[in-house]
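Homework help board

Subject: predicted structure for assignment chain

Our instructor gave us this sequence and asked us to write out the predicted structure in token form, then describe one feature. I got the tokens but I'm not sure how to describe them. Can anyone check?
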Amino acid sequence: MAIITIGIDLAKNVFAVHGVDETGKPNLVKPKVQRADLLALIVQLPPCLIGMEACSGAHHWARLFQQHGHTVKLIAPKFVAPYRLGGKHGKNDAADAAAICEAVTRPHMRFVPIKSADQQALLTLHRTRQGLVEDRTATYNRIRGLIAEFGIVLPQKVERLRREIGAHLEDLPGWANRCIGDLLQYASQLSERIDSYSDAIAQQARQDDRARQLQRQPGIGPTTASALLASIGAGHDFDSGRQLAAWIGLVPGQYSSGGKTRLGRITKAGDAYLRSLLVMGARAVLAGLGDKQDRYSRWARNLQSRRGYWKAVVAIAAKNARMAWAILRYGHDFTVLAD
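My token output:
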């Protein structure tokens, strides 16, 4: 019988492929396929369902396989693990491929949206900027730790640190003075690069109609709008805005049993970068409420007074995720109505 489902365990150079026919019987088992031979192997097969874990290179392979008529689904690795652990074999590439082949056929399995080359290029801009921000934070923390060894303790705010550390540099003995000076210079260079990437993201957001539409929603700026476009595209991989919010990890985790509903903290699933941008945008909304009396501001203020600051932040972030899905999916302006 013809192969209808394939599971591929991705790697750098050697891949494992597991294919089954319509009865579920293995019909293509190749535990070691070289990277140069993988595409040729898949191209010669009739159109079928291909499952892969969402890891490095998965989106590239998905686009290649789709060009040859195959249906490709990407699965988060944590959703594949139960199908592997429940099998007869241990952890190896062949067992992973068989588990992926089984998981991709499950009717309620959740899949990762396949990104286009343009989306990945835009995400590269975001990932590079975020990496530079983390490097800068680590550098300033390293500076604080080093000068603390000499009894110098400065405020955590970067502006005050840079402003006040100059008066203490001469008090540092020997190589300490040079090292701290070099670290400060390195942090300044990182800040310049971060600013250049931020400008590039803002420029891209200004040139995209959908990004400009997203920015009309309170709490969504150029960076968040650009990240949403790069991560979810037109939102066609999600059936509803709540599903997107759940994918990002902004909905409560459930611990219900015996007819009793118990809701815990948010799941924090999905993309931590996208979730953090939405949360920071929600915090900016609450910080900028002031005495505003429009409908949205009254709702946010009442929500904060009833449920507390952090629950209000999460609720606003989840609302923005749902609104963003509606804007990207249907192309309408779902801005919040004001009085």
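Reply (TA_rk): Your tokens look well-formed. For the description, you could write something like this. Residues 335-339 have pLDDT under 50 and may be disordered. That's the kind of observation they're looking for.
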